[in-house]
C-alpha cells in the first residue's frame, strides 16, 4: 500500500491503553499494540536518533511492534523497514545537497498511522519535526543553559520559540529587549511556547534566559512568498529557513538555528 506525503501531516490521538493477553496474563508489547489499534488509540511512529554518515543519515526510532515503517520523500519515493518485536526500527535517508522534508508513517495491517507534520533533514544530518501551528521539535542533546533551537511563525506574525534547557527550570523571553513571554522546561529538557506579541516583518533580537544562562539570536521574520509546491528551504544568516504548507492550506515558516549543533 502506497502512502503519499500529502497525507502524512495528520496526527492521531496520542493516548495509550494498557491491555492483558489471553487468560488475564500480562499482554506482550505486540498484543498491547493490537489492542490499542482496536480501541483507536495509537502512538504514531517517532524518530529518537539520527546519525550522519557518508552513505546518508541513519534514522532510528520507535513504532508499533512489527509495523511497516515508511519514510516518504516529496517526490513520492519512499524507504521502508519493519519494526522489530520491541518496536525498534532503522531507516537510512539518502544523502542530499539540500534540506529535505519527509513524511513518516507506519502500517499496521491495513491501517496507516501518521506522525505529526514533517521531518526536516539537513544535508549534515540535523533533524527536526515540523508541527503545524506549533514549535518545531529539534533532535538535539539536552543543555543546562537555555538554548533557542527553532522559531516558527506565520504570515500574521504569530510565533513560537522552542529549544532546550534545565529540566523544570523557568525561562523568560525578551523580544527586542521587551518581555514577550515565558514557560517551564519540561521533563525531557525541552520548551516550546508562543510569543506574547506578534513578530513584525523585520529583523528582531530574541533573548531567552533562565537557570544556567541565556541565549540570543537575531532573526528576520520576512513573510513567506507564495509556494509553488509543498515547501521551500534556503540558507539564511545562521539558520535554515523552511517555508512549508500546512494541512489547512496556510504557510508556516520555520527557522532552524545552526547552534543546535554547537555552531553559530
What can you see in these coordinates?
This protein has 264 residues and is mostly beta strands. It has one helix at residues 29-39; strands at 46-53, 56-62, 68-72, 78-82, 88-93, 100-108, 111-114, 118-121, 127-130, 137-138, 147-154, 159-164, 170-175, 178-184, 190-194, 203-210, 213-220, 231-236, 239-245, 251-257. Strands 3, 4, 6, 7, 8, 9 and 10 form a seven-stranded antiparallel sheet that branches. Strands 15-12-11-20-19-18 form a six-stranded antiparallel sheet, with no helix packed on it.
Secondary structure layout:
Layout: H1 29-39, E1 46-53, E2 56-62, E3 68-72, E4 78-82, E5 88-93, E6 100-108, E7 111-114, E8 118-121, E9 127-130, E10 137-138, E11 147-154, E12 159-164, E13 170-175, E14 178-184, E15 190-194, E16 203-210, E17 213-220, E18 231-236, E19 239-245, E20 251-257
Antiparallel strand pairs: 1-2, 2-5, 3-4, 3-6, 6-7, 6-8, 8-9, 9-10, 11-12, 11-20, 12-15, 13-14, 13-16, 16-17, 18-19, 19-20
In short:
4% of the residues lie in helices and 46% in strands.
What is the 3D form? Answer: globular
Largest sheet: 7 strands, antiparallel
- Please give the count of helices: 1
Could you give the distance between the termini? Answer: 43 Å
Q: How many discrete domains?
A: 2
Q: What radius of gyration results from the CA coordinates?
A: 19 Å
Fourth CATH level, the homologous superfamily of the largest domain: Immunoglobulins
Count all strands and give the number. 20
**CATH class of the largest domain, please?**
Mainly Beta
Instruction: Give the percentage of residues in beta strands.
Output: over 45%
Which structural category fits the helices and strands?
A: mainly beta
Helix content: under 10%
At CATH's second level, what is the architecture of the largest domain? Sandwich
CATH-derived topology of the largest domain: Immunoglobulin-like
Low-confidence stretches: 1-29
User: Order of SSEs, N→C?
Assistant: HEEEEEEEEEEEEEEEEEEEE
Mean pLDDT: 85
